[in-house]
């Protein structure tokens, strides 16, 4: 027992001596001239005994700067250049609307030239200088063209006059032995027109005058104009005849003594059919006349030639 205790004590003493040697400062190696020797910065404080010390640090309670000092001036920077703005394209130039009128015929008579213009189912007897609906004005009327001006834009448009609208009235010739009416050139028999009305009327009492037509060809419509003596007759009503019972019919009364009519139908072959019927009121006694001053019969293939017609005459008594 005593010997074991001695051995254990020696072992503990050796272990203690080894630990003291391990934690003891090792001697610094000799300086090597090839390696630079690090020196402490001059501004770092150090103690006189060679021990390293940390620089003093101010606490959170220390002042960082002036509490109410003005902030530093802002840094001015040049603004970024703006992207160029593309200019909007200019609006399109205004143009006149599609031409709503067409030439339906010419009026052949003494005085300034006139034409018949149609717009849908309405007709207009116009002369140079007349103003039409939709901002149009009749600038000129020639034998082959009519020029209209769209006044809002001062834009001119020309309407061609078809040769078929300038229909010459060919007088009929009688073939000997047959009594048949023929037209020179072999175009067939022209349309026939006639008046139907009383030969004598009383002032103040209304009466009707009907214009009837018979034709061998299709007749679709006709712009026409009637003339009367406004001092003797007063128009009371104007209506379409039976030929245009299912078609369109428009008219305009001019107090100076004329009636403009536009009638369009399905395109039938008339046989003694009423074309237009006018109701008059006689004003005073006298010999009154009703004339067909202009007429253009329109068929499926163009204008339809017609025979001339004399004026309707009636005697007005008191």
Outline of this structure?
This protein is mainly beta. The chain is built from one helix and 21 strands.
Largest sheet: 6 strands, mixed
Quick check: average pLDDT? 76
Helix content: under 10%
Our measurement of the CA-to-CA distance between the termini, rounded to an integer number of angstroms, reads 184 Å
For the largest sheet, list the strands in their spatial order. Answer: 11-21-18-13-16-15
Strand content: 35-45%
Could you please describe the fold and organization of this structure?
- Helix content is 7%, strand content 40%.
- The N and C termini lie far apart (184 Å).
- It has a six-stranded mixed β-sheet, with no helix packed on it. Strands 4-5-6-7 form a four-stranded antiparallel β-sheet, with no helix packed on it. The chain has a four-stranded antiparallel β-sheet with strand order 10-12-17-14, with no helix packed on it.
- It is built from one helix and 21 strands.
